[in-house]
TrEMBL record:
The protein, known as: RB1-inducible coiled-coil protein 1
Gene Ontology cellular component terms for the protein in this record: Atg1/ULK1 kinase complex; cytosol; lysosome; nucleus; organelle membrane; phagophore assembly site membrane
BP-aspect Gene Ontology terms: autophagosome assembly; autophagy of mitochondrion; glycophagy; negative regulation of cell population proliferation; piecemeal microautophagy of the nucleus; reticulophagy; ribophagy
Keyword set, alphabetical order: Autophagy, Cell cycle, Coiled coil, Cytoplasm, Lysosome, Nucleus, Phosphoprotein, Transcription, Transcription regulation
UniProt entry tagged with the keyword Nucleotide-binding: no
One Gene Ontology term of the molecular function aspect: protein kinase binding
The organism of origin for this protein: Culex pipiens (House mosquito)
Length: 290
């Protein structure tokens, strides 16, 4: 369950745990729908003084349990003429004294004992309920104290933030006051500076199309530089492509030369092999004749 404590009345409100996964705005609308408290007047705080933002999820804040609930304040209570009664309202039971006096007047019989015993049990049960109610009131009073402590913490944070802003303002003001003489000198010499600037000549070419295209007179220089860079890169590419056929021709010539050399070497090897075989045949034939 999601616990929201209404500090103005001291009443604990419970909601489904699924509300913790929704945004704070949805929780406020649910409170308005079930308890009639205007959504625009609801202020939700957690322990420590942090305010729940409407666009954030409820589960982003470490609160919502029975011991650490979300504290709710309603600004509409300030405008109400009749303040809401505290919750729960305790009404004293004055009928007990009359019942006790009536039992005391009964005669000393067995029925009188039974009647007095039943009355004593009834008084005991009522006492237990009253004790439980008192414990609830004490717990809710403690939660109210915690809720107002959260308000005080929020106010202290706001005061500290405001003090930081004030100190920053005074620091900047002091810096500005110390430079007052310098600023006045700049202002006093402003007309003289304008006069000097007006005497500086400006070329008419620089003023062309200045109103329609501010700071655009330098674009042409950038475009020319870009075109030059592009033409240089394209020229290098063309040179490389033109040199490719020459390189291929040189490679082909080298290959042809290597092929011719290898074919000549093969012919020499065949001739040597032929001469060697002729010599071997002559040696064999001379051996046979001997």
């Amino acid at each position: 369950m999601l616990y929201v404590f209404h500090v103005d009345t001291g009443r604990m409100l419970t909601f489904e745990m699924s509300k913790a996964l929704e945004i704070v705005r949805s929780l406020k609308e649910t409170i308005e729908r079930h308890h009639g408290i205007p959504c625009a007047s609801i202020v939700l705080l957690v322990s420590g003084g942090e305010v729940l933002q409407d666009t954030q999820r409820v589960c982003n804040y470490s609160a919502g349990t029975d011991t650490n609930p979300i504290y709710m304040f309603s600004k509409s209570v300030l405008d109400a003429r009749n303040q809401p009664a505290p919750w729960p309202s305790i009404e004293t039971d004055n009928d007990l004294k009359a019942q006790v006096d009536k039992c005391l007047e009964l005669p000393a019989t067995y029925n009188t004992v039974v009647t007095r015993s039943l009355l004593a049990q009834q008084i005991c049960e009522m006492a237990k309920e009253e004790a439980k109610t008192c414990e609830t009131l004490i717990h809710e009073q403690h939660l109210q104290q915690q809720g107002w402590a959260a308000v005080v913490a929020n106010m202290e944070d706001s005061v500290m933030e405001f003090q930081e802003r004030v100190s920053d303002f005074y620091r900047r003001y002091e810096e500005h006051r110390q430079r007052f003489t310098e600023h006045m000198e700049i202002l006093s010499a402003f007309d003289h500076d304008l006069k000097q600037l007006s005497e500086i000549p400006i070329l008419s070419t620089l003023m062309e199309n200045a109103a329609s295209r501010p700071f655009g007179n330098f674009d042409e220089a950038y475009v020319d530089a870009g075109n030059t860079a592009n033409s240089t890169s394209s020229g290098s590419v063309k040179t490389t492509s033109n040199s490719e056929p020459a390189t291929a021709a040189a490679v082909a010539t080298t290959t042809d030369a290597e092929g011719t050399t290898s074919s000549q070497g093969e012919e020499k090897a065949v001739a040597l092999a032929g001469s060697g075989s002729a010599e071997q045949q002559q040696t064999v034939s001379s051996g046979i004749s001997d």
